[in-house]
Amino acid sequence: MLSLKTLFGQRLVYFRIKRGMTQEELAFRIGIHVMTLRRWEHGELGPKTLDFVDKAAQVLEVEPWKLFTEIDSARESPQI
Questions:
Q1: Could you give the angle at the alpha carbon of 7 between the alpha carbons of 21 and 48, nearest 5°?
Q2: Is the distance from CB of 56 to CB of 45 less than 8 angstroms?
């Protein structure tokens, strides 16, 4: 089972790529430094508050719970 930080990071990457956004653009729109976003995406760090989760979900146009669900690789493989 993946840690929540790792799962959150994987889902951020998935939805960011799906939306055609760069790390820099997503970080700016959430209101965090790009290095913070990179650490989130690598599962090294998680958001300090749920406000950041809500903001990320708004920017990525997904429900917040989708940032914590495992990817069904057969249906949700990001196109890189």
A1: 80
A2: no
Cβ atoms of 13 and 60 within 8 Å: the answer is no
Query: 7 near 42, Cβ under 8 Å?
Result: no
pTM: 0.84
Q: What percentage of the chain has pLDDT greater than the value 90?
A: 82
Q: Which two tokens mark 58?
A: 């708004």
Report the alpha-carbon distance of residue 4 to residue 60 in Å, rounded.
18
What are the structure tokens assigned to 50, written together? 């749920």
Helix (H, G, I), strand (E, B) or coil at 80: coil
CA neighbours closer than 13 Å in the CB half-sphere of residue 31: 11
- Tell me the one-letter amino acid at 74: A
